[in-house]
Amino acid sequence: MEFDEVIxxxxxxxxxxxxxxxxxxxxxxxxxxxxxAPSAGFSQGWGxxxxxxxxxxxxxxxxxxxGGNAPDGWLERMSKAPLIVIPMxxxxxxxxxxxxxDKGWADRDEARWPVPYWDIDTGFAALLIHLTAVDxxxxxxxxxxxxxxxxxxxxxxGVPAQFTPIGALTVGxxxxxxxxxxxxxxxxxxxxxxxxxxxxx
Length: 201
What we know:
Elements: H1 3-9, H2 24-34, E1 46-51, H3 54-64, H4 73-78, E2 83-89, H5 91-97, H6 117-135, E3 139-143, H7 150-157, E4 164-165, E5 168-172, H8 190-193
Antiparallel strand pairs: 1-2, 2-4, 2-5, 3-5
Helix pairs in contact: 1-6, 2-6, 3-7
């Protein structure tokens, strides 16, 4: 698929065919492409938890669902995705990398970082997974973990404390679904968001 077509087709898809697993070779390609993401100082301070077994996926939804209520339509559709990838950032890898002689921030002071590049770089990796899924004819959606669910998530899957999940990607073959009402908002005009030379308007 041409890159322009990948971008044109990119959507957050929330309904999946539960009877069509993601082929192993495509799953592996998603993860290989994630590792091509840029990272500050080539720190590569990320980790990816891959959930494919039904019991693992069910556990994920049980520990990250809001309030323990009965599943709503959104959760019913999303939980049919045959593959979940949880990208996680590791701040300590960046602080250690930039304390090395070629960088020289030996104090490991987090205040030196204007923004949390560990999260940004892991977000780049997540986007590469998402776009690769589109290129391979799959559907994907990036979602956040609800506030307050991280401790339960870490305990359920044995995730070390230094790793922070930035969200999760559901991946699978698309099932019929209604159009998101948010799309009625439309894209913001380019002149509203792009500023040349200086900020104006």
